[in-house]
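Key result, reporting period 2: structure in, sequence out.
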């Protein structure tokens, strides 16, 4: 018995394929902007804006743009994107959106978040939720990137062949499957 590995394409690649990748790129840039500058929409932007833009915003943007490019390449090659990859990308977007709501910024009246304002205990709770959201968001983005790269390489399937399987020549000679042709004894 012999095993061989082959890459299986779901469909032939279409040059116009990859809508999910484009959506991921646009959404990645949108959530990176939301994390970095979203507080300015509510009038509570402050000194942390540049820090968030250069760290969290840049990291989310880079990771999600790369994931989007890889998802687009996967579709153009004709391979399927696993559901788990899509779930990780969506979870990243949700965590990034919620992070933008709960991340604090400094204002003249002190620290504030979009959902709590300056009031305690809501401010402390929002800040306490922001840190895990950032960690989970970055983690799911990295996992999504690894899964997307694996998807872009294609699914590998093992094909099993038997060494004694009949060849097309055997079938043409009239020998059935599993039958072995015996040579007729030569007479002299």
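The corresponding designed sequence is given below.
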């Amino acid at each position: 018995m012999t095993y061989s590995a082959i890459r299986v394409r779901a469909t032939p690649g279409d040059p116009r394929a990859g809508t999910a990748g484009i959506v991921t790129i646009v959404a990645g840039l949108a959530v990176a902007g939301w994390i970095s500058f979203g507080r300015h929409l509510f009038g509570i932007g402050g000194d942390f804006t540049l820090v968030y833009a250069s760290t969290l915003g840049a990291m989310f943007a880079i990771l999600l743009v790369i994931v989007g490019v890889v998802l687009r390449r996967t579709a153009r090659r004709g391979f399927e994107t696993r559901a788990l990859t899509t779930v990780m990308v969506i979870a990243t977007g949700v965590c990034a959106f919620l992070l933008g709501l709960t991340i604090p910024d400094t204002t003249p009246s002190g620290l504030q978040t979009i959902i709590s304002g300056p009031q305690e205990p809501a401010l402390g709770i929002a800040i306490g939720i922001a840190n895990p959201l950032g960690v989970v968001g970055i983690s799911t983005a990295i996992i999504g990137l690894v899964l997307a790269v694996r998807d872009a390489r294609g699914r590998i399937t093992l094909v099993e062949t038997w060494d004694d399987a009949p060849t097309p020549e055997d079938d043409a000679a009239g020998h059935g499957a599993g039958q072995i042709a015996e040579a007729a004894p030569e007479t002299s």
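Confidence is low (pLDDT under 50) at residues 177-182. The first strand starts at residue 2 and ends at 8. This case is discussed further under Risks and Mitigation.
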